[in-house]
Amino acid sequence: MFHTYEQAVDWIHARLRLGIKPGLTRMEWMLERLEHPERRMKTIHVGGTNGKGSTVTFLRSILESAGYLVGTFTSPYFEQFNERISINGQPISDDDLIQLVNVIKPLADELDQTELGGPTEFEVITIMSIYYFAKVSPVDVVIYEVGLGGRFDSTNVIHPLLSIITSIGLDHTAILGDTYEKIAFEKAGIIKNGVSVITGVKQQEALKVIRNRAAEKKSSIYHLGEQFFTSSRSSLKDGEKFTFTSLFSQVEQLETSMIGAHQVDNASLAVMAAQLLANYYSFIIEDSHIRNGLKKAYWPGRLEVLSEKPFVLIDGAHNEEGITALASEVNSRYADKKISILFAALTDKKLDRMIAILEETADSLTFTTFDFPRAAKAEELMEAGNAADNMTIAHNYEIYLEQKIKELKGNEILLVTGSLYFLSEVKPLISQLLKNK
Asked: The whole model's pTM is what?
């Protein structure tokens, strides 16, 4: 039995030693022992390479505005571990987390002794969330974000009302495959029999795989650009404005408080999901709820402006597609500014392509590393670049940030980007430095 929050979280993190073990057998074993709590929940499943967290947040905020109690399961956490299991954006309490660990640990101990092997950290957290939302603190609906891939992801034990596949990118290729088709096949694994799927996937070869899976499962497909559209997009100082059109209705001049053209796509997926819930699942969601929900939605670390004087911006662009979207937005919004970038990444990413894009965007590009098992060394990042004159290494990012923030001029932006794990570590430091300044 665990009695403190620290003991509980330490036990969860200790499961990291088991690494990634694709497959659903351990999840199904634990669910059976818990009398299938997943069958007591209404759920929505969100997969894809980029945009999952933002889409979850937009949809959660719309449903909240409509008066629903909404659970979310997301990863990774940004500021606090408890964020991963939240209700209406409020993280699970320390006491509830301790309770969940004490329920799940005996099952994990028993599994450890079987030929299936013990559950991984992510499997433990997933099963905790299912038990929590089904038995400890029931909600109206739970939105589940896929951890990795989809087909063999531990969240793929739910039978949702809707499935959403945001995008396809060449990420985690060592596990999911090295082509858009192979990755799409893994992502499409979340499509269930007769369950509608909403997608913003752009590559035709990936879309074909998703269409085929939907046809096999007799699932209706709603594709951005075909069954629903966005138009009249314009950038606002702190977000975007656009019009949404679907088979059901048109909603004009919607606004988001998240920056970027890609966030319009993510918001449109959430709006389409809301309309399907309203038209086919008796959810009472009006245009005003959609409008208010999108406007209020906030997700940290996504083109987030921490300060304008000095100008400090953070973004969790952790793969090539994310870096491309970031660069496009920075180049269009801040073309008149000098851009200084601090970058840290994990070793399992396509570092050369990511860095090449950043090189074109940055006036100065600084590489660093951080305390994480898969973090790339600053020297590795430098070697992956073109050794341009504007590249430097910061062995200690804390010293770099303290000095850089002091020196930032009025025409300069400091952009901190890369791994979300890095951003979650560095954001509190930046916030404190800005407060001191």
From this structure: 0.93
